[in-house]
Amino acid sequence: MYFAKPPICLGLYIGAVIYAAFLPAGLLTQWRLSRAFPLAFAAYFLALIAAGLIAAIPPIGAEFQRLQRAQAEFFARAATCPLGTVAVGAQALILAPLVEETLFRGMLFEEVKRKVGTVAAYLVSSALFAVLHSPGLGALPIFVISLALAYAYHKHGLISSVLIHFTQNFIAFAMAHGGV
Fold first, then answer.
1. What is the reported pTM?
2. Which of 51, 56, 61, 104 has the fewest CB neighbours in a 10 Å radius?
């Protein structure tokens, strides 16, 4: 029975519904993909290297490892829910990249850029994205990766940041499920 499962199941299902409710926000943004899109992936991989170097700093690395352990625990607990792995996969691979990139890049980035400027748009959208994913020192590596997502959006279109976000989440999801 669905209700006999742990509370995480209810949270998982509600989370999927909340993410899905934000999908129409994607209609408010411009979807384009630049021909130079591979440069966005190059910037992303450089950001991964930089994030790894930042995570090598002991206090930051410890915080970041706590985040990774929490994610692994969440994936394991969610897998006990009916359709749990499917729901987590849908959230991580489809809903999160679409919704988060639309909100943080397509809307917030553009609004901050319009009001304060491009540099502020990079910093504000990336900082808020990072803190949402990991408050504290663990946000620093995510901030660097988020800057690459902002670059991908700004220079190559929303679809490029969505595809890179999907790639990031796919790798994390596959690693959590023993696929990488």
1. 0.82
2. 56
